[in-house]
Design a protein that fits this description.
mainly alpha; 79% helix; globular
């Protein structure tokens, strides 16, 4: 876990440094056409959904893994074997779609593949040694990082994205940090190119997306609490 945190921190630091030094090379112009507006909106949705995936998988694993003594196969881990990485890629991809030029999406995917696929391979090799045939059966049944949408649609969303208020409280700082960063860069882009007029329209879309994500989180928390009471 510590190694993963160091890798994430190093990548974020390098990205911020390069973007700060060469903003015009990476950041999109604030004057957007319809395709860029759609891309930006989809990016916001990816960031928010990625945060929910990361929260759910991290919190669920902390409760179910028994400090690494048990293989977690339910909850978000029934959808993909690496839901935390799925959350991270959604957040990163969403930020790129919101803020950066089109070609940066390809760069992001190449960098993610180069760094995280290696980490996934190393972590799963350790799990195979620890859990043997149990993990092999799990690996054959559940995809590594790209979920099967047919599988997702067969199950109620709260079954594979459980959420608790305590998990949310632990991560609220990082969630706010990502949103504040995106808002700050987006505001700078807009003010420097289109002025203040269109900013309110774009913020309205962002606020609506945040409200929808908050409603989804509230629903998942209520369903998870209801399941706990039944059990």
């Amino acid at each position: 876990m510590k190694r993963r945190v160091r890798v994430h921190g190093f990548i974020i630091f390098c990205t911020l440094l390069v973007v700060t030094v060469f903003p015009r090379m990476f950041l999109r112009s604030g004057s957007l056409g319809l395709s860029e507006e759609v891309l930006s909106t989809v990016g916001i949705a990816c960031v928010l959904m990625g945060q929910i995936f990361r929260l759910s998988s991290r919190g669920f694993k902390s409760e179910q893994s028994k400090n690494g003594g048990a293989l977690v196969e339910s909850g978000p881990y029934s959808l993909v074997r690496n839901p935390m990485y799925l959350g991270i890629i959604l957040i990163g991809l969403g930020l790129v779609m919101m803020l950066f030029k089109w070609w940066a999406i390809c760069v992001f995917l190449v960098v993610f593949t180069a760094i995280y696929i290696r980490l996934i391979f190393q972590e799963e090799r350790k799990l195979a040694k620890l859990f043997g045939a149990i993990f092999e059966a799990y690996r054959k049944k559940v995809p590594a990082i790209i979920p099967s949408f047919s599988t997702a649609l067969k199950s109620e969303i709260s079954n594979y994205l459980p959420l608790r208020t305590s998990w949310l409280k632990r991560e609220i700082g990082s969630i706010c940090g990502v949103l504040v960063f995106a808002l700050a860069v987006k505001s700078w882009e807009n003010i420097s190119t289109v002025g203040y007029v269109l900013i309110f329209e774009r913020f309205a879309v962002l606020i609506l997306m945040i409200i929808l994500a908050a409603a989804l989180a509230a629903y998942l928390i209520s369903k998870t609490n209801a399941c706990k009471k039944i059990l």
